[in-house]
């Protein structure tokens, strides 16, 4: 179904200059595997011959590594779910990667281009919660399903949610429940540190709620510019508060781990806890060996056939590299879309029907079974309680499984007031 502009709609109000800019920004950005699908004109997609998926990701900027992981995982997921054919029910699947540059205004332009010019049937993304929140009104206007990955802000499936929003990424509350379970308890004093962004503030708000319920006291909260590289002032205030634990929510290349080490925070009796990050950030955390926390994913944690396929295929395609933190998320998003296409017999032209079909849908992923909760379309999923350990032949502390946190154990509160 070709999307029509509504008079006075949000999409129609975008200026001609902005639309022209979006068109000029069109790129056939390729994944590292070299098999990026090329966009074609809208006529073929509308005719039922091709199903098009637009993927928004940070392919440059502070979250570039996350975008790379997501797009690699997405391409692998399409191949896994279609047995390498990239076809479902006789319909070819094409996908277009667009770089949001981790800038909400750019994300809006790229999403508009995907919806209006490329006439995609689905959107996926983005690496940043800010980018994703900016795009949500567009998918509601266009009545096209967006599978959110890996953005985690609670508000995406909370107060900013609409019926076309589904999320395979875990949300901040799921992270928080896992993080609090690792360290919170009666009388435990905790300080928190996060970027001053939707991602950071939502993450800390959810953690506080979970930790206080377990009897802990939050003695200090610090938020830093998400692009900052000097965290001295924030760390000093945390140390002055004399917490038992410092719980950190962070994402991006400019992580605070080295500065926390340089300022000898742990030597002052403060234990650090966080979600185990991607491999690049783990390489800066050698002083945190022994830390107990949680993990969204590390390639040795899940024990299932889908993850085994992912690890083996990723190594084959990418020079022996293992999948990283958000690779399985990209794969899960792709699998969910293919499962929806199968469920609908290839008829995905009506966004309302697609949304209805995906509500409550379960599907197998590298992290085991995920289910889109009917009430808010948040995917309930397994997380992992871990301990960082040093292993021979590995130049970073490895997340080692303490126990799996089952989907019902980390199920977040429903916040969308549906």
Care to describe what's here?
The protein is of the alpha/beta class. The chain folds into two domains: 10-170 and 303-380, 3-Layer(aba) Sandwich (Rossmann fold); 173-295 and 383-405, Rossmann fold (3-Layer(aba) Sandwich). The protein has helices spanning 10-13, 16-24, 42-47, 64-81, 104-117, 129-142, 172-183, 198-213, 232-241, 257-262, 279-282, 305-317, 327-343, 351-358, and strands at 50-57, 87-88, 91-99, 122-124, 145-148, 165-167, 189-195, 217-224, 245-248, 271-276, 292-295, 362-365, 368-372, 379-380, 383-389, 398-405. The strands form three sheets. A seven-stranded mixed beta sheet has the order 8-7-9-10-11-15-16, with helices on both faces. Helix 2 (16-24) crosses helix 5 (104-117) and helix 4 (64-81) packs across helix 12. The radius of gyration is 21 Å and the shape is globular. Mean pLDDT is 88; it is low at 1-47. This is Branched-chain amino acid ABC transporter, amino acid-binding protein. Keywords: Signal. Belongs to the leucine-binding protein family.
Q: How many distinct beta strands?
A: 16
Structural class: alpha/beta
CATH topology of the largest domain: Rossmann fold
Radius of gyration over C-alpha positions, nearest whole angstrom: 21 Å
Proportion of residues in helical segments = 25-40%
Q: What low-confidence regions span 5 or more consecutive residues with pLDDT below 50?
A: 1-47
User: What does the largest sheet look like?
Assistant: 7 strands, mixed
Q: Name the strands of the widest sheet in spatial order.
A: 8-7-9-10-11-15-16
């Amino acid at each position: 179904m070709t999307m029509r502009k509504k008079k006075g709609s949000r999409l129609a109000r975008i200026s001609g200059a902005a639309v022209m800019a979006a068109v000029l920004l069109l790129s056939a950005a390729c994944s590292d595997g070299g098999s990026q699908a090329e966009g074609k004109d809208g006529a073929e997609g509308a005719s039922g011959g091709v199903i098009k998926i637009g993927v928004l990701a940070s392919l440059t900027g502070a979250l570039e590594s996350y975008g790379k992981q997501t797009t690699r995982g997405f391409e692998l997921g399409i191949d896994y779910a279609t047995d390498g054919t990239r076809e479902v029910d006789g319909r070819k699947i094409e996908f277009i990667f667009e770089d949001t540059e981790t800038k909400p205004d750019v994300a809006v332009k790229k999403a508009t281009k995907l919806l209006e010019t490329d006439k995609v049937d689905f959107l996926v993304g983005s690496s940043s919660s800010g980018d994703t929140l900016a795009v949500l009104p567009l998918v509601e206007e266009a009545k096209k399903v967006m599978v959110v990955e890996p953005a985690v802000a609670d508000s995406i499936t909370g107060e900013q949610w609409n019926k076309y929003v589904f999320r395979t990424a875990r949300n901040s509350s799921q992270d928080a429940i896992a993080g609090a379970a690792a360290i919170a308890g009666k009388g435990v004093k905790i300080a928190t540190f996060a970027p001053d962004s939707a991602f950071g503030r939502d993450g800390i708000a959810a953690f506080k709620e979970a930790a206080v319920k377990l009897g802990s006291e939050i003695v200090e909260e610090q938020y830093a510019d998400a692009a900052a590289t000097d965290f001295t002032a924030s760390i000093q205030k945390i140390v002055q508060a004399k917490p038992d634990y410092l719980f950190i929510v962070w994402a991006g290349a400019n992580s605070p781990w080295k500065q926390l080490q340089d300022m000898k925070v742990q030597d002052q009796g403060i234990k650090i806890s966080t979600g185990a990050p991607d491999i690049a950030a783990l390489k800066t955390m050698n002083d945190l060996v022994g830390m107990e926390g949680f993990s969204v994913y590390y390639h040795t944690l899940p024990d299932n056939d889908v993850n085994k396929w992912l690890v083996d295929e990723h190594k084959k395609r990418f020079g022996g590299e293992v999948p990283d933190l958000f690779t399985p998320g990209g794969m899960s998003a792709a699998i969910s879309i293919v499962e929806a296409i199968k469920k609908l017999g290839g008829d995905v032209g009506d966004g309302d029907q697609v949304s209805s079909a995906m509500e409550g849908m379960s599907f197998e992923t590298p992290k085991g079974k995920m289910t889109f909760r009917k009430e808010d379309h948040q995917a309930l999923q397994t997380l992992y309680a871990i301990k960082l350990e040093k292993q021979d032949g590995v130049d970073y502390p490895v997340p080692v499984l303490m126990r799996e946190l089952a989907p019902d154990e980390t199920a977040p509160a429903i916040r969308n007031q549906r």
